Amino acid sequence: MNMSKTPGVGADTAHIAAALLKDPIDFFLSEHNRQLEFCDALETLADVMEIQPVKEQAAVLLRFMTEDLPLHIEDEEQDLFPLLMSGREQQTEINQALAQLITEHEGDKELVRPIVADLQEINDGRALADPARFHRNVQVFCGLQRRHLIWENRLVLPLAKRSLSNAEKAELRRRMIAKRETRARR
Question: Which residues of 117-131 are buried (b: 16+ CB within 10 A; e: fewer)?
Fold first, then answer.
């Protein structure tokens, strides 16, 4: 991957939201694709950081981890998952799967902290005290993200596509747009 650009990772969520929120489920899929690109870019940064400059890419990845990823998790946990947990067929199975995904989100926060701290160090132009630890943390985090996204893309999003009513999708879209407008005003 060309580290001079991190395609999709640095995209302004507010700009893509207007186009993709027409169908909020498609928006989630698009965000999942961005997360996969993010993992590729983060792993590339971890692989090459000792042999080429990566400060600019660290800034983009840091923003993604501290702004875009938490917003996406909020969209899922506060908006999408509650809709899917309310009165659906196979409710027990889907509730268990969604509870597992929420648990994984919590675990991700533990992995994110040291990666964010290291990206901040790189962004600030400082050498990492333990680059091998950063590399290991990135590999573990990205591996878990890819597994998590497979679950969401194969189970959660198809369920949402077929079971959410138009009114529920409209409410989901409204909430997601409102969240982005609130953040844009900050």
Answer: ebbeebbeeeebeee
